[in-house]
Known about the structure:
The protein is of the alpha/beta class. The chain is built from 11 helices and 8 strands. The protein has helices at residues 19-29, 40-43, 48-57, 72-82, 96-104, 122-125, 134-148, 160-167, 201-206, 216-219, 224-238, and strands spanning 10-13, 35-39, 61-68, 89-93, 110-114, 152-154, 172-175, 211-214. Strands 1-2-3-4-5-6-7-8 form an 8-stranded parallel barrel, surrounded by 6 helices. The longest helix is centred in the middle third of the chain and has 15 residues, at 134-148.
Amino acid sequence: MSGPAREERLIVALDVPDASEARALVERLGDAVRFYKVGLELFSAGGYFELVDWLAARGCKVFADLKLYDIPETVRRAVSNLRASGASFLTVHGHRSVMEAAVREKGALKILAVTVLTSFDARDLAELGPEASVERLVLSRARGALETGCDGVITSGLEAPKLKAEFGDRLLLVTPGIRPTAEGRPSQSRPADDQKRTVDVAQAFANGADYIVVGRPVRDAADPRAAAQAIQRTIASAFPS
């Protein structure tokens, strides 16, 4: 599996209330970003597919982060509809029947299975029983993703080293929960960060990530373009030409 273009390894999350704000952020970022995540917040706001078309017309790639989870036939039909949307990536939950259904209809669309959300930690998994652990569940779901024909997984940078060691380049590793070292902890004027299992940019790639997904550190920066450019410089250092 060949590696992605260096400038596309940064995926910026368009986690904003509506499509007009998303377009404004994209225009502000300019050529500093070539890959965008559009998720449930925008999907529920209207204009989702028009935004995907607009991004594609600008030469940008799109990650449809919809985390599909339903009965297999519903997932199959949804993926059949979404594969013509122009998106490059689509997320589904890492349950075998869901992944199998998605893969059957994916076409050129790359299916990424969600292992364990980066907002979850061991306490959130306690209800699954005393034997449950984040690491064990991530590995199990990643193995299922490979066996069912998914193209990659969504994984914390903390679990990425074990997945890279286990699966090599057979699965793309897409890592959210990125907090650049200059970001710091939330100030008293900001809501507490709901991401629990985080890493910085350099650590994510050193741990084996193929792509990183960055939201708040770019979106909420005083200068989003400068923040994205700083991340791209770190990526360039990790992947010299």
